[in-house]
Amino acid sequence: MTPSSMKYPLLAAALFAATGASAAAAFKLPQFETVKLPNGLTVLLMERHEVPLVAVRAVVKAGAVDDGSRAGLANLTGDAILLGSEKHSKAAIDEAFDFRGAMLAGGSGTEQTTVQANFAKADTDTLLPLFAEIVQQPGFDAAELDKLRTRKVSGLKQAKESPRQVAGLYYRSMLFGDAPYANPPVGTVGTLSALKQADVREFHRTHFRPDNAAIVVVGDFDPAAMRQKIEALFGQWRAAGAAPQRADYGRPQAGTARVWLVDKPDAIETTFTIGGAGIARNDPDYVPLQVVNTVLGGRFTSWLNDELRVNSGLTYGANSGFAPMAQAGTFAISSFTALPKTEAALDLALKTYDRLWSRGIDQATLDSAKAYVKGQFPPRFETGEQLASLLGDMFALGVGRDQIDNFTRDVDGLTPAKAKQLVDRHFPRKNLQMLLIGKASDIKPIAAKYGEVTELEIAADGFRPVK
């Protein structure tokens, strides 16, 4: 259950009645209006009158790919936006939202930074102006920013104690090398500690501009009136110079089989990730690939979980999945096992993965996966908050509504023969990339059989080999 559905159970119930399981076969993205303001700001408006709530989201096309050598800058900026505006302190804004039972949040990832708010329709005229303030004129209070940065640095240090928390960062770095997609969104202890208030202000000034952003509003409102509100609040937003250009953020490097062995001397488990190149978020095969991956490692009854957990007891869980971004993506099998069972778990994971080619997916298994995916998909877009998030992702990652509207068609049209074509086209088979985090002195002899080994120290700052 999502945070908004826990907070507003009637919203989840009402929207599920409209788009729930009984209507899964006919799921379509609700209609929405796209408006472009004279200053270049994109505005997406979706009416949903089931309950008197409004979800608003500001989406900026900026993230870790724009950090350059200052890893963690976008992430720090995204969180620091919530520290207050030039006119109102953080305490005043928090009080305004909390008093009305509203939600205000923000953050930054690989390619986008967002600010989001959920509130009652009756509070729109009070809270929407405050939302507009922090998006356009954040205060970046120096004392609050210092405390935020200190918390983030402490969190990074703690994360290295839990390999499963950082495995994805090492894996992304392994696949993308020095390209922008390799930048860890959370930064490193060194880069994050060096960031100053001036860096945050500069990042906001450079990337937070109307021609690089969208305002998404989903909920109970009159479209004409909401357009007027948005134009009044955001129409005077200006930016100097040309908008940042979307660069080439990199492609996965998988020319040879490689192993990154990250040494954690006190580890009693081996955390592992195996895979290679994946797909972009707007790939036309995105939806049917979710079905195929469901069979392999996308649900509790998947092949990987059955073999590594249920049948062999080598782990408490195993999964696989595609991590798509705007220009490229990765595919990964992920699990962990007791240190003495490392080789057995790796070999079984690889053997199970090879079933995609050696045995393929039969009709009964495929039908089960199709039913599962069709049952899971519509409930992901029940609430206004979820729909606003979807529209924001579509804007930031270049996804058309056809991918959503054709969901049922693409799932129902999948056959064993088409599934085989998808496997051959998108699942990496040769030159697999492997990340191992554990006690290197015990794992190194095993690692060498899977590819060229590069050793790293988990205590070292960052998520790539020290040069």
Automatic annotation (TrEMBL):
InterPro entries, per database record: Metalloenz_LuxS/M16, MPP/UQCRC_Complex, Pept_M16_N, Peptidase_M16_C
Keyword Signal: yes
The organism's taxonomic lineage, starting at the top: Bacteria, Pseudomonadati, Pseudomonadota, Betaproteobacteria, Burkholderiales
Span of domain Peptidase M16 N-terminal: 43-183
Origin superkingdom: Bacteria
Domain Peptidase M16 C-terminal: 197-371
Gene3D superfamilies: Metalloenzyme, LuxS/M16 peptidase-like
A GO MF label: metal ion binding
Signal peptide positions (record): 1-23
UniProt keyword annotation of GTP-binding present: no
Entries under SUPFAM superfamilies matching the protein: LuxS/MPP-like metallohydrolase (SSF63411)
Name of the protein: Putative Zn-dependent peptidase
Sorted UniProt keywords: Signal
TM region positions: none
